[in-house]
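Re-run with default settings, no changes from the original entry. Doing this only to confirm the output is reproducible before filing.
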Amino acid sequence: MPSHFLYSTNVFLKLLIQEQFRNDVHYVWCSESFNPSKLNPYSITSMIPPSSSPFDIYNDLKVALARNDRHNDKINNQKLSFKNLADMWEASGEITKDQRDEIYYMVENATNNEWKPLIYLIPRSIIDLSRLKIVPPARRANFGMEYIVEDLKRDEFDLIEL
């Protein structure tokens, strides 16, 4: 039976960028389980490894920020991703050059507060199934199901900070 909720962990800066430059529409990669390691080990729902587990991603970011780890892979990958997205959005005419520069500025000058992890709690009942995309097996970290919602609206999820 599917979970009543979907979970995603994202940095606060992503929320700010999508709020300001994407009309508060959010692209999220999510899972049916927050902490797969606490589930039945003989169930496919437990087969989401740390690299895709909302719980593990949250904790990895929390530890990196607490220790001022400037080489954390997740944060460095997010920096690169935000800049690449800004370039793509400018090239497609979705944002201006000034807005692209603003995103670059935000990424380069973000403090630990902006990199803090947030859990998105998404009630599955309000997501139209046509909007819930199953991640293709080749892009998943293991056999456990992962999903993408490309157009999540802000009133369709709650934020949790542990």
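The radius of gyration is 16 Å. Residues 5-160 form one domain.
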